[in-house]
Automatic annotation (TrEMBL):
Record protein name field: DUF3097 domain-containing protein
Pfam families linked to this entry: DUF3097_C, DUF3097_N
InterPro entries linked to this entry: DUF3097_C (IPR021447), DUF3097_N (IPR053883)
Organism of origin: Actinomadura miaoliensis
Start and end residues of each DUF3097 domain: 29-88, 119-276
């Protein structure tokens, strides 16, 4: 186990010398089994293994913060000694479970791009579109449904009219901050068509639909009125002032549907069902 204090002064122990380039067989290879506790010696980050794939191993510390590290040779410390983590071998016994996509659905192997259907899903902004793509992209490619972003919903009624929805041309719209009495709810109420579903989540911004623990924070900060929400969040978290970089940090922490709030999950699944219904 690793303590809360880290020192790079290891003295004349096993870390002395060029331990990053060990002789063959000198550093043991350890399967990155779930709950194995290791330390990254460069950053001092210590945590339990919660996932491992060809891209690297995901560690979670005792505060719930997660980080991904490459499976480098002699890249970790186990009980203070260098080890090489490798992907665990799959158990040979029993039927093999079907592969799952990031949304939790059964992944379709050998998928080829399908001709897009006329039905569409509209979201408010590019961040919304990127998050939907990361979690539901596989499902949408299977169905042949395209996601587009609107840069706001102020002109939603006119956009819907221009889209010309019909029985074979359905439209699903995902709206941020769709709560009673909000501007967004009043705009959504003006759209009336059996071939259009306008629904949404209660969060001020799609950032909030990512669970705080996935990002490594206790909670999303409260931003005072009059302060742009994204900029206020960055300032409160000490993440600088680059909104794009902040979003890349958030999106990079999302690995599956379990990293998202149920209020978003349910609405996106509802929209996908609506636009793909026979």
């Amino acid at each position: 186990m690793c303590g809360s204090v880290r020192s790079k002064d290891y003295g004349n122990d096993v870390l002395a010398g060029d331990w990053r380039r060990p002789r063959k067989g000198q550093i043991p290879e350890i399967p990155a089994e779930r709950d194995l506790v290791v330390e990254d010696p460069d950053s001092g980050f210590c945590g339990a293994v919660v996932g491992c794939d060809k891209f690297g191993v995901t560690l979670e510390d005792r505060f719930g913060k997660r980080r991904v590290f490459p499976l480098a040779k002699a890249g970790f410390l186990l009980d203070g000694k260098p080890v090489t983590l490798v992907r665990p071998a799959q158990a040979p016994q029993g039927p093999r479970a079907p592969a799952r996509s990031a949304s939790g659905s059964i992944a379709v192997s050998g998928l080829r791009a399908r001709v897009a259907k006329e039905s569409r899903i509209y979201v408010e902004g590019v961040h919304d579109a990127e998050l939907v793509e990361k979690i539901w992209g596989h499902d949408l490619r299977v169905e042949g449904v395209v996601v587009e972003y609107l840069e706001g919903v102020d002109d939603l009624p006119a956009i819907v009219e221009e889209f010309a929805p019909g029985p074979e041309r359905r439209l699903g719209v995902l709206v941020d901050h769709l709560v009673e009495g909000s501007k967004e709810s009043r705009i959504a109420a003006r759209v009336r068509s059996p071939h259009v579903l306008v629904t949404g989540h209660p969060f001020v911004d799609i950032w909030q639909a990512v669970k705080p623990r996935a990002v490594g924070i206790r909670a999303w900060p409260n931003v005072p009125r009059g302060v742009p929400w994204k900029e206020g969040v960055l300032a409160a978290l000490g993440w600088g002032d680059d909104v794009g970089e902040g979003w890349r940090r958030i999106l990079g922490s999302v690995n599956s549907y379990t990293d998202l709030e149920p209020e978003l999950l349910g609405r996106v699944e509802e929209i996908i069902d609506f636009v793909t219904a026979p």
